[in-house]
Each structure stands twice: as structure tokens, then as C-alpha cells.
Amino acid sequence: MSTEDTTTVGSFQLPSIVPRLLSNRKILVGLTVLLPIIVITALGESITPYDPLQTHVADKYAAPGGQYLLGTDNLGRDILSRLITGGQSSLLLGFGATAVSMSAGVPIGLSAGYLKGRVDEVLMRLMDIMMSVPVLLLGILILVALSSNIVNVILAIGIVYVPRIARVTRSATLAVSEEPYVMAAKARGESTSHILFKEIMPNVMAPIVVEGSIRVGYAIMIGTSLSFLGLGAGPPHADWGYMIATARLHIYQTPWFLLWPSLALLVTIMAINILGDGLRDVLDPRAMEGEL
Amino acid sequence: MSAQETQIRSDQDETLLSVDNLSVEFAVSDGRIQALRDVSLSIESGETLGIAGESGSGKSTLAYAIVRYLDNNAHVPEGSIEFKGRDLLEMLPAELRSVRGKQIAHVAQNASRALNPSMRIGKQIRETIELHQDVSGEEAQNRVHEVLDQVNIPDPLEVAKRYPNELSGGQQQRALIATGLACDPDLLILDEPTTGLDVTTQAKLLDLIEELKGESDAGILLITHNLSAIAQIADRVNILYAGEMMEKGPVDEVFTEPANPYTQALLATTPEIDSQKDLRAIPGQIPELGSIPDGCIFADRCAFVTEECRSGQIDMESPTPGHQTRCQRWETAVEDPIKSGTKTARTSSPGDVILEADDVHKHYDEGGFVQNLVRDHKPVQAVQGVNLQIREGETVGLVGESGCGKSTLGRTFLRLHDPTSGSIKYRGTDIASLSKSEMKEFRSECQIIFQDPDASLNPRKTVKRIIARPMEMFTDLDEDERNARVDELLDQVNLSGDLKTKFPHALSGGQQQRVAIARAFAANPSLVVLDEPVSSLDVSVQASILNLLDDLRDEYNTSYLLISHDMGVIENICDRLAVMYLGNVIEEGPLTEVFTPPYHPYTRSLLSSIPSLDPHEDDTRIRLEGDVPSARDPPSGCSFHTRCPQKIGDVCETDEPKLETVEQTSNGQQTHCIACHLDDPEMSKPLDEPAENL
Fold first, then answer.
1. If you average pLDDT over every residue of chain B, what do you get?
2. Would you tell me which CATH number, out of the four given (1.10.1200.10, 1.10.10.10, 1.10.3720.10, 3.90.190.20), belongs to the domain A23-291?
3. Do A9 and B457 touch (CB under 8 A)?
4. Measured between alpha carbons, how far is B265 from B282 in angstroms, rounded to an integer?
């Protein structure tokens, strides 16, 4: 570890964690891929070669290369421009929804796993009920109740995935809550919230981080399905999911139309998963020496 | 190889296994670990060879090397392993398979993991038989029952049909040994067969191994860190340290006249009953074996070290024929380990009662409403009406086999569990009625130290945060004062201040336990519950932790409730003792009274189960039949009647005996109580002649 490891009682050791993060190859790879994607999509319309909504009827189904770098779609819109702006809503959806489901699912799972008994029964049965409704149907139900805009889509998808995060957290918590150090904290008279968030949570982060990184991908895909059904960010607004949905119809004439958004989705999701794996390794102090 | 060794070899051509100058290396990311260096040993048919040493000394690596189970990154640069004249290292895989299991049986450590949980016991044993012998199904089945019977498992037909989790720890170990015996091997390798078992179970298992020795002429290689097990069973002993043989010789000679400082140190760390010996720890730790320093590998920890020990090659020397030691100063470096310094008896004057348990019951798994409605659901009655007092500055020991409710009682005392009924008073106030601020004070006054130090420290927190946390909660110290106190505590538990920024996983087991102790003492507690504080530690470390606890007790005037199954540990540190069996305290009194007659029959058998370091000790032990009954359905009357060697008759089955005073000291404070229907003379008389009522 670095020598900056000075007195940092109680606070997160920011100075020493950064080099540790960057020394992990998985994190490095994940970030190298993900950061450009995030930057490019964030810049959005200011760097797109064309207006993503503008149709060039004369140039529809243009092949990649030439005037339109990645070709055009069935209405003659520039695919590259749509890809860049479409990434905004997709990424926002993926990370936003995961953040929502983590912020509700983790505390639920922690409480259920640690407090056990009646609390566990009530919380988990509630989660089971939510899980028994098909994901898409639940998303649709929530979106029908709320109005369909990007914030609500994020909220809806986030809620749909709360039970999964809660389940993973709970099972990890069940094992950790029997550890003597949790007992020692209890014997010291620590408050329940201290035990949950300071003693247990750091030790169950590994599976949660992995689960979270998988959820980001799934959330983007659910968003895709919802917008395909007309409940997400609807046309003509660009969105990777929506682009894939339309491209499906033109797969024989213009396979690249399907290829680009799929590729973008694939690369993003894989980068997030690799990053998640790396984070899990680095956050575990036991793994530290092996890496350095 | 020394001339003498060759001499011995040629005298006895019966050699079953001979390992010569064996070295084993493991390739790791930053170089190699030289796990074994120049190790030689030999076993003859019918002989039992014990291999002892601390953990990390390479005992198991040696066992794995013999059966060639080493991991892929292992490499044997030199040496040979000859089994019945054939070199195992040169065998082809097919040959090797025919030897393993059939001629050499390796009984792995930790029976609960070595048995396949999803396969019936009988099936597992049968697999070995059918693999190596051309027998019919029926013959194989008969052989299964035969070996199960041979390892003294009652009702082999029934047990063969069970799954491993349906057996007790001792029975699992027996079943595993039965698997090893299935093909009547010529060499049986037992890797830590008694570790993790209760003293009573351990004693019976050692009896079994002794019995097997008599029955067959197989050679037995007994690997253990438990020196008393070797003293009882083995014919010869080899002491291994950091991958080198330190001493070899007949058990009698090595245990009475050890010629190597390491052997002496090991013997001095092992607690013994009735010897009043002052435990001495071996300072330092087993070295990392990445690079091997010149000279004696034990030099850094040796009490007799001189400059010349640190250079050159240290060869085996022979004090007497057949007895060898890797020490060039063996003639002068001698101490009598068995009668090492005696301990001065503690003169404690117990103060006020701190904690008092009054008829405490604790039941687990009481079942939900539906469970109770549908069938007669029985809760686990872990603690059944215990009365116990702990006074200021006093150390109370709580002993018993596992599953008798010791830990539950300890945790209920600290209100980590709520008692099902009964009350626990802390300085006169029932802890159930404490207000929030009183509860906080109670928490700061009463601390707990657990068995497994690795698990009792949060892996995500540094040593400093771990130790400082109780101060943040219970004291008004500011950050600088807390830092100063952390330094002071680390110094008191003999840890270097450099460890402050380390995470627990970077520490050794002994260091971790010291951190846990520092944390417990951070807020000046008046009572510390020690739940098996040393049982997961190496013997060499155990002594130092016990000595540390002893010192801290004097310094802080703290009371201890010491929970342990190890009478040796108890004897070393306790003032008063309570013996528990199935949730009841069956004997209670000052240490010396409990350790002398009259005894409760259970206490007597616990005391006699403790193996001694003296190989000549008479074996007049009492063995308890069977295992501790289920706490879900405890026996009627005296709960011990099902296993009691001194049972009188029906009265034991119907009436529950009360704790009655048998002796009283002059001040009336220290009484010795026993719960048994026997009268005084019967509880006092020696059990040389078997009880008539058996």
C-alpha cells in the first residue's frame, strides 16, 4: 500500500484507494472502455456529425463508410449520431435504475438478513410477491400508474430489480451476521444501524457489486423492451434499445443497422461487468497483496 | 545420511516405508517455498511413528508427499520415498493408484469435510473396497460392516445406511478411519485424527488407534500437534520444525530426555494437569520458507542460541543410538521440560458479586405456532436452570463437552441472547430492566473474546480502528488520547505499533487474538467472557495468550468467565470451576476442590480423559459410553445417567439430583457443590475396581 496511509480514523481512505484501484488490471480495462463511452455520450449532440432526428430520405439504407460513417437507418437518419445521443438515455437508464434498486434493495436485504424472524418474513415475502410478477409486466404496471418519462422509467426498472438485489444481500448477510465480529459489535452495544452499515455491509459488498454490475446490463435491456412497447423514451427519440427494436425489421437489408447499437450495448455491458469484477477484488483487503 | 542411520537401517530389513533426504518445494508467484528440506524417516511394520510440530512445520505436506497427493505447483528436487522397496516417486499413475487406498491409506484431516456429505457411509467405504478388491457385492457389504465394527461403531448395519451429517464428530472420524482400513492397508497415515474433538471423544479415539495397533501389523504414521497423543500411542517420534526434522527417537527417550531445544520448548508449552507447571511460550513465529537462512532454522526462537548456531550446516547428531537431534549444542542445551518452573498459586480475595445468574434457562428453536400445533415440537434446551455467581477479580471456569451449553450460557450472561426464563443480575440489578444508559454502562463493563480470532475481527477494518472503536463509544477521549491508548494497549498485549495500519488477515492467529484481547480491554471492563480463547491456536501460542490473560487480569483486576473444554487451560488460570453437562451445572467449587475427590462421576471422567505427556503413565482411565444426548430431548432424572459409570439404579433415572454442598471453607464463601445421588465416600473412592452396579 502507499505511504500516504496516515491518520484516517473513521473516514474512507481516499488517497490510498485510488492507486490501488488503478493497479487492478480488470478495473483498468473496464475504465478504459467505459470512460470514453461515457464521455462521448455525455457530449451528445455537440459532437454528432448530423442531427440525430433529421431524416435524409435520399440516403436511407446507406452503407457504412462514405458520407455517413456507420450508415443510415430506414428513414435515412445518421446511425452514428443516433448512437451517440441514444447512449445518453441507455446509460442513464442502466446506472440510474441500478442505483435505485441498490439503494432500496441493500438496506432491505441487510435488515432481513440480520434481524431475521418476523422482519425477515415480512420483507422477503413482499419481495417474493414482487418477483412472482414477470419483470416486464411489473415495469409496465408501474409505468401505467406513473407517466412515461425517463425519470419514471428509471424508477420503474429500479423497483423491478429491488427484490433481486435484496435477495443477494440477504443471503450474504445471513452468513456474515453469524460471524463473531458482529457478535462482538453487539456485545459492545453498537446500534443496529452501525452494525448493518459499518460492520456487515463492507463485508457483503462483493456479491452486491457483482450483482449490481450485471443489473446495469439487464436494466438497459428492460429499458429497451419498454421502449419497444412504446413505454420508454418513444420515437423519434434515439435510444439503443429502440434502435435495436426497429433494426430487427430490416435485418436482411441492412444488418449494420442492427450491428452498431447491439455492439455498443455489448461493449458497454461487458466493460461494466469487468469493472465490477475488479472492484470486488480490490474492495476485499484479503486480495490486496496478491495484486501488488 | 549419518553412519548410524545406515547402521540402523541394515539391522532391520522389515522397513515398510523409508523416506530419504526428501525435499519438497512449492512454486509461488514470487519464488519458491521450501516446505520440506532433507527429511528422512522410516517406519517398520507394526510400528507407530508420531510426527509432531507446530502448524506450518510441514507435517501435512510430508503426509501428502508420501501418497503423492501434492498440488501441481509442488516439486520434489531430491530424495526418495521407498515403500516396500519400491520408489513411490518413480511410480506410474496406474501403479500409484493401486498402492493408494489399498496398501497405503491416508486418513485426511477434518472428518466432517473429508466425507462426501451426499453419500451414505457404507457406500463410501464400499467404493474403496470395490475399487481395489475383486469381491462380490455381498462380500463388500460384509467387509463394510466388519470395518465399522473394527472402529467400534455401535450398530454398524444401521450406521452404514446413514449420511455423514447424521453422525457425531467422533463417529465421523471413526468412519473415516474405517474407510482407510477397508482394504487392510500396510501403512495407515492418520493426519490430525483428534483435532477438533472433545477430550472425552479424543481419549476414546486414541484408545481405538491403540487397539488397531494391537490387532494388525500395519505401520501407522500419526501426524498431530498434540504431543500427549503421541506420548500415549506412538513407539517413536519425529519432531518436525519449519520443514526440517529436529529430533527423532523412541517416545520414552524424547519425552523424558529431549535433546533438542525445540522439543523442549514444545513440551514446555503444553498444559498438563496437576503438574502446576508454568507455561512458557516459544517466542516468535515459524519462519517464512522462501529463503532458508544459514545455520539452525530454529535459532531465532531458541533459548540456547549462540553465534555458531547461525552459520554453517547443522547436522543430525546422535545422543544415543536410535535417538538423533539436529542441534550441535544438545549436550549443554538441556532443560527438564516436564518439571519446568512451577507456578505460584494465585491468592485471590474475591470481592463483591458482579454478575449473578439465577435459575437461567435458555431454549432455542421453540418452533412456530403451526409447528407446535401440528406436532409436539421440542425446543433445544441449551441451558436448564443455572445458578452461578462471578465475583470481582475472580476467574470462573466453565467446562464440559461440546453441546453442553457453555457458550450459550456465556452469551446469555452478556445478554447477547435473552434468557428464556430466570434472571441475570449485574451488580444487583436485573439486566433485563436496565435503562438505555445503564445498558451502555453494562456493555462497556462486560466484554467477550471468541474462539476464532480471525472471525472475531472485522476483516474490513484496520487494527487501529478495531481497538479504538470501544473508546469512541464508551469514553470521552479525543482522537489523540485514543491513539495514545491504542499504542498503550498494543504494548500491553505485546504487539508492535507497526501493526496499527494492518488489516486482520495480515496477522497470525496469535496476533489476531491479541488484537481481540486489546479490544476487549480498551474500555477497562470489569468482566470478560473468554469463549475458548486458545482452542483454535497452536500450542506454542496458547501458552503466551494464557500468560497474557493472566497478566492483564492482575493489571486491570478483571473477572473472567473462561469457557473451555480443555482442563489443562482451566487449571492454569481459574480460581473457581463450574462443570456443565447438558445445560446443568453438575459440580461447582474452588479449582483445587473440584480437582480432588469427591468428584462428580462426570468430572472424574473428564479429568481422566486428559492425555498425559508422560509416556509411562498408567492408563487407568474412565471412558464414557456414547455421545452427549440431544439437548432437544434430554434424559429424565439425572441427565448424565445414560453414560454414568457409577449409576446406582432407578433413582438416577427418575429424580434429578440437586446441587448439594459437600465441602465448605471457613469463611463460608467458597463452597464445593455436586449434583449427584452418590454419597460422599462413593464419589471419593478410587475407581480401580470396576463399579459393581455397572
1. 83
2. 1.10.3720.10
3. no
4. 6
